[in-house]
Structures
1.
Amino acid sequence: MRGKPQSKRKIKPDPKFNSLVIGKFINYIMRNGKKAMAQTIVYKSLDIISEKTKQDGLAVFNQAIKNVAPTLEVKGRRVGGANYQVPVVVSNERKQVLAFRWIIDAAKSRKGKAMSEKLADEIISASTNEGEAIKKRTNIHKMAESNRAFAHFAR
């Protein structure tokens, strides 16, 4: 039997921009409780973005998150002894989580630079609808589109 659902924790906005989205992103970057290191990485990458694009780094970051966030995903559903990949609409909170995760993973997979530079490059490419994170979103959308016939199994 399941217990009661975990209540959502209030996440504090980041100190520099006072943005909840950046605060959450810093928490996703953070490893082993080293928040100051994560903040340094994110703020450096936003500075690099504003240098390279000559635009506000926060605006480019928000555009990248919006571009990477998926609208559909597939979930496995067992019906009558067979497993089906059922396309479902993604909630706003999960869209943000997946966008963060894909951007960070794509940045980690790049080689030969500091994390802040890799992250900046990935955010810039995601804001222009390019890069690994956008490829990941496109693949998810293609899977959902190809399994559209099983949409009636969604509840």
Note: Strands lie at 72-79, 82-89.
2.
Amino acid sequence: MSGEAKGIDTSPVDENTAAAIERAEMYAWEDCYAAAPADWAESVGLRTRTVAGALVIHWTATGRRYFSRAIGLGVTAAATGEAIDEVLSGWNEDGISMFLIASQPHCRPEGYEDLLRERGLEPFDAQDRVFRDGSPPSVAEPSERGLAVERVSPETADEWAEFLQRVYRLDTGVWLQRLIGRPGWHEYVAREDGEIVAARGMFIGSDGSAWLGMDAPVPGLMTDDYEPDAALCGQMVADGLVNGARSFLADIEAPSPGLDTPAYEYFARLGFRRPYVRLHWTRP
């Protein structure tokens, strides 16, 4: 990847901004799950619910923690032990033992993590949240590899959906294709020599917050090749601003204590900062 590496800004955000950031992700996952065909969703145990201002997502059939999570708990509103019990009991009723509950510096009450520990939860992994405002990005450098970034269309929806399912080893039926053309959703792929090598999605909510996710393969976890994701993120920020986005959020899912992987470099180049770390908790 060409260009001089720059350190990423780690300035924190206040509680109100953090709550707005978490709500933006909540809106994206809620709408994503709502797009699934009702009969298919019922057959695989796909649903959402709201507990203490947080979004709780369920996907029983996957056995994957990431798809059964509590998003915004303790941030959008103060949590209680009773609320955490309600979150856990709902997963238990659905037979879900693989789940994640997040904590971050803005979680309330002050003993939030103690409430998690009292219920037998332990830290599982961490993610660095990255965020930027709606200012114009720097001019992106052309890919020396000839990577081509394009928005997924109805004509390429099946190819994109097959790629995501193959990378994540998931069966999504026709769910993913229903996101193409759905209000707020913008899905992209990066091609090399005509073949899809990476994908990432963007959901722009009614408040103008753009969530960047559904990245495949996940840089640092599934691949050591960061350049396709950098190209995708650059195009998505540019397109997002044209489509009314006023802020952008994403995660670095393979965090580095030294903030020194290529992900920090290209997010910094695009104007993102790392305001906080989210720690995921689960039962061992």
Note: Residues 15-34 form the longest helix (20 residues).
3.
Amino acid sequence: MSEEKSNKIKIKAIDVRKEFKEGKRKVIALDNLNLKIEEGEFAVIVGPSGCGKSTFLYMIAGFENVTEGKILLDNIPVDKPGNNRGFVFQEFALFPWRTVEGNIRMPLDIAGNLEEAEIKAKVQEFIELVGLEGFEHAYPHTLSGGMKQRVGLARALVYDPDVLLLDEPFGALDAQTRKLMQQELIRIWQKVSSLGKKKTVVFITHSVIEAVYLADKVYVMSARPGHIKAIIDIDIPRPRSYTSDEFIHKREEVLKYLEEEVLIAAQQNREGLHPD
């Protein structure tokens, strides 16, 4: 691996269970979920539709509560959102009345602990990092899908969180743009990690190819109720080729674990809608 990790456990899930109520019915989205993610790791979670992977990400973010068990961040239980975590949503989630600059600076405006000159300098640094120079004063409706997600990524990183959480951020993009954004995300992650604190990433996707391209480790979740079925080390040096023998071998290894769970999830989905 080209990146060195500290072997410090950054995120730990211990016997996590999550229940939802659907009318009078109780749905168990996650049960007996355990995992450890190291500081500086790029972790990718894949699983069948309805397995609870997005729910788990929202719990790391503090947007959802744990029903049983616990999630620890730096050995402290997560019970609410915090500025040590940045989040990039599947939908672009930009404020249409704010420019590129205005969207990116929003977390700094809310924090209110920097002078205006510091805010402007920091925002410009991240505009340049994600390759949006010249678009500072553009509004979201004038941007392509890839550009919108660059704004979302810069906004999530601008206040220097330890952990970056991404919920299928490239799912709505065309294939060519998606591939470009995968490459750009690795570049940005490596760059910001080299400048200071190592960024731990947790990335949700339905794409096995995307998972193998991005991850240090791929965590395969079972069908509902979700738990970790397998952990696959992706020990391929970066930059990676989608067509190399190593890449194809790892892709097949992930698929082997995933296919059985997809069949189980398909049967569950025929019986009713379950949370993801």
Note: The mean pLDDT is 92.
